[in-house]
Please model this.
Amino acid sequence: MSTSPATDDLYHELALTLLPGIGPQLTRQLMSYGSSAKNVFLLPPGKLRRIPGVGEATIKILTGPERGKALAHAETSLRKAEKDGVQILFYTSKQFPSRLKLIPDAPVLLYYQGPADLNAPKTLALVGTRQATEYGREQTERLLKGVLPHQPLIISGLAYGIDIMAHRAALQEGLATVGVMATGLDIIYPAAHRKTAEKMRETGGLLTEFPFGTQPDRYNFPQRNRIIAGLADGTVVIEAAAKGGALITAELALSYDRDVLAVPGPLGAPSSEGCNALIKANKAALYQEPQDLEQLLNWDAALHLPGKFQPAPSYSADDFTSEEFALVSVLATAPSRELHMDELAWKAQQPIHAVASLLLGLEFRGVVRALPGKKFGLL
Model:
């Protein structure tokens, strides 16, 4: 395939993800040893055997007939992506959603179509039952009107019920909204939502980890839900039955240390059993009005920021404990001197629970400031 260097890299990155039996974790492992996807395809069996987690079955896939099939599939997919205006984002790309990189089971490649910024300053997922009621529709519309001043990116799953209500209400309010799909981008499911999906392509976007042609197989939907949870600063469950995909998304968000809110519903109403149970179990904060969400995500403070932070003063290690100074040092070298708490903990090599406590102390001392989406900036 005759391509530019950048396209050549993407060609091999895409092909690597199309190999059978090689999932995200093994892909990252191979990339760490090969330094590029192209190099991975060029590694001889002897070198592949030295990579932890690579066995004879994987070597056979990387060097046998499946290798050629994946490369041919990648070439076809790149041409289709170019024709349809689809971005293919490998996890090493600057355009890959930074929030998604922080979750342990993140995909390594995404297909994206639309103008919305996947790294928007504020992101919010709205999820719920497919059997939504009029109450659910009213609460969805009310919530989106309430968050208009923040202009968040609204994320949902394009499904029946609360999902499509959220997308349509966001479009009505002029908010960018992204639908995370359990199919390839060329297969809109359900087909009844095609018109809404087309509008979303114009002002928001459609996103999936599944290759072109992927059908809406049952097991794709729980997998899709982790992307919804991973993209969002917070997840709001509008209506949910006692069991269902919305609760799976909420549990995933909690496991990623993201905030979850739930709209309470009438006692005994099947469509609100899941929401009420989340609140009762202290797994979700009670959502009654936009201020509940603003305070939890620290969006209320962001509305009143005077502007970008002024250049940070010089800090001395003598003024801090070693753990505190490690956090200050990492923030001082970060873009715009701000980072998500999870990334800050990882870069400082400190446990997340300890970092949360340290940041609180630094915030009280006027050294750092909390920002929307569990980010912290150096003052």
The chain has 18 helices and twelve strands. The chain has three domains: 5-84, 123-301, 317-378. The first strand starts at residue 87 and ends at 90. Residues 41 and 62 are 7 Å apart (CA to CA).
